[in-house]
Structures are given as C-alpha cells and as structure tokens.
Amino acid sequence: MSSSSLFTDPAILSLVSASLVLLLAQFYTNLVINRSLSPKMKAWVVVKNGGPSEALALKEVGEETTTSLPEPKGADVLIRVSHAALNPADLVFMRHIPTWVPFRRQAIPAMDFAGQIIALGPKAAAAPSHAAKPLVVGTRVAGCLNVGLIATGHGALVEYLTVSSELVARQPKSFGDSNAKAGPPSAGLLGCAGQTAHLAATDARAEAAFGVAEPRVLINGASGAVGSLLIQISKARGAYVAAVCSGKNADFVRRLGADLVIDYTKHDPLPAYLASTGEFHGANAFNLIFDCVGDQSLFLKSPAYLTPRGALLCIVGKGPMAVPYTLRNRLVPSILGGTPRAYRLLGMSPSGERARAVAKWADEGGLIKEMTIDSEYDMADVKKAYEKQATKRAVGKIVIRVQGDKKVDR
C-alpha cells in the first residue's frame, strides 16, 4: 500500500475517527462544565453528520422544569450572546465527529462569541486575569471557545452561554459602545481569526523577519479573515506587503494597506509565477510568507523568492496530508531533497490571554484598525451562512446575529 493510499483507505480513516472519538470522550470526562439546569432557549444543533443543510436544526434546548437562568459557578460568567462568528473548523466537526456519541447529542456549533455578562460566579469578579479592571454585570465581552468545548457540543450558537472568565476579553472600545456595533467585529477579532493572526504575527520567525531593515512580507489568502488582519499588522510593523487574492478583492486589500496585489486567478500556479518573475528575486525576495491557504507547493518553490533566513508560516493544514507535509518540510535536509527554508505549521489554542492581547492591539497599539465583516445573518438563516462559509470565498468574517440588544441591569 502506498503512503498516499494510507490516508484515503476507508478502514484506516474509520480507525482514526474512532480513535479521535475515544480521545475526545476521555477529554470530556475531565472538562469542568457548568451542568446546572437551564430553561428552554433557542440554539442551532447538529442532528446528523453532513453539510449545513442536512446537519443543522434550530431547536429549543434546556429543561422544561425551570424558568431561571443557571447560576454560574466559581469563576464562570453567564453571557447573553448577541453574535457568533463562523469558522471552517465548525464544518469539520459537523461532518466528521459522529452524532451518536453521548457528548455529541444536541451538539451546538460555533467557536466565536460576543455578548454581555448578565451574571458572575462567586469568584469571577476577583479573577486574576481581570484584576486591573474586574468584570461586572453588563460588561460586553467576546472570545473563542476551546476545542474541547466545541468537540463536545458546547458551542456559541445559543442565546445564553456559560464560560470561564479566563476565556473572555472586553470588546474593544474602538469598535463602538453597543452590542449592535461592537458585537460583530468583536466576535471575529477576539475569536479564532484574531487569535490566529496574533499567533502568527508573534511567532519567533515572524518577529525576526519584522526586525530586519525594510521587511518584505507575502500574504497568501490576504482577503480572508486572518489574512486581512495580517495585512494591517504587517504594515504597522513597517513591512512591504504583497497580498495574494482574487482580482475582485484587490481594492479591499489595498485599502487595508497592501503595497502590491497578486491576482492568483491570473497567475496560476502562484509558486511558478513567483519563481519565474524577477520581481521577487535577490534583494526583493520576501523575508516572511504567511500562508493562509495551505499551499504546499508555495513552500517547495520558496527558495526562489524567500530569503535564506526567511520563513513560511502556514495556518492551514491540508487534511490528512498535513502531518506528512509538516514532517517533510521540517525534517528532510536539503541534501536529501528537502527545502532549505524554515517552515512552521501553526496551531492556535484559544485563550483569553491572547484575546485580551488582540483587544489591546485594536485599542492601544494601532496594529489593527478594523475587523472586516463579510456578511451578517439572522439567527434563522444559519444554514445559509454556513453554506457561504463552505465556499471559502468570504471576505472577512461571517457573523450571526443571535439576538438583539437588551438592557442589562448592572
């Protein structure tokens, strides 16, 4: 059996899937989840595996036996969710984690959330992560749920959400003073997209690239949620930015600061174009490449347009080949056919600390001016929103308006 067929054989894929389920089940038993009774509330749930149209249903979840919202415990906070932002990972969980396992029954999707605190656990006000400015009822917050919570179905497409105070950050003041204004960009910026951009931009290889005189940065997938943030961050760090996107998004990435736009529809394959044109050779080679698409050939051909001390940072693993590609890119020496450039496949673990750092960039550092919203859908139209997410053609974030503003008594 060839190495490639190992990753396409149905029996092996089933074994890997079963192993993942068992691993998640073990992880689930160790999670600290607020299991207090909650009243009936609207939520989107995964009822079967598949694409959004067949997998999702809008239901009422909770208990008939109570009308009171759950009291958060410990350092948890109860949030009235105003917005949720969608991510490609939602679709992966929706399609591939079996709905028959106990912790995936009535599984609620979506990682990113924004809303307002309506109750605090007894230790939340004194949480060390918010010591400088303690959380109170009425504080508008946002964040990203961790993989354990999402894998076990505790997602953000629900009216009320209980999370650890450690996971949340205050919504940036620069985004506005209401849920309607600040909720959509906060859900994206303090969620998966913003935290991934922060991870990439603060990687040691990126810091080294930004530290050279007149750094040159290439961003593949520049019009997406993460790519559009990396344009702003790179420009704020003094870099020359070449943005790869389709021609229809050229004006958009230029507005964010891109110095050069490369239309991948006109220069396909992209690596061959970069290697063949003299525009990116020698002194004009890039010091850093952010790959937000996951193009393995972009790294393989990189010696032609990436400086010897430069690096390619990839934020997207391409399915079952992600691990073999990473091992090849990191471990195979050039004498054996390896690529003599630095490579990193980044994996972001959501945290409130990172969310708060991103919020500070938006409010104080000047590195981020905006979180672009591709579209905003009503709660009833989640299937349409996920179908658009599946096209991989969103410019910025797709956001769900879970519920409208409501005065919260402080």
From TrEMBL:
<keyword id="KW-1133">Transmembrane helix</keyword>
<feature type="transmembrane region" description="Helical">
    <location>
        <begin position="12"/>
        <end position="33"/>
    </location>
</feature>
<dbReference type="InterPro" id="IPR036291">
    <property type="entry name" value="NAD(P)-bd_dom_sf"/>
</dbReference>
<dbReference type="GO" id="GO:0102978">
    <property type="term" value="F:furaneol oxidoreductase activity"/>
</dbReference>
<dbReference type="InterPro" id="IPR020843">
    <property type="entry name" value="ER"/>
</dbReference>
<keyword id="KW-0472">Membrane</keyword>
<dbReference type="InterPro" id="IPR011032">
    <property type="entry name" value="GroES-like_sf"/>
</dbReference>
<keyword id="KW-0560">Oxidoreductase</keyword>
<protein>
    <submittedName>
        <fullName>Zinc ion binding</fullName>
        <ecNumber>1.3.1.105</ecNumber>
    </submittedName>
</protein>
<keyword id="KW-0812">Transmembrane</keyword>
<feature type="domain" description="Enoyl reductase (ER)">
    <location>
        <begin position="51"/>
        <end position="400"/>
    </location>
</feature>
<dbReference type="Pfam" id="PF08240">
    <property type="entry name" value="ADH_N"/>
</dbReference>
<dbReference type="Pfam" id="PF13602">
    <property type="entry name" value="ADH_zinc_N_2"/>
</dbReference>
<dbReference type="InterPro" id="IPR052733">
    <property type="entry name" value="Chloroplast_QOR"/>
</dbReference>
<dbReference type="InterPro" id="IPR013154">
    <property type="entry name" value="ADH-like_N"/>
</dbReference>
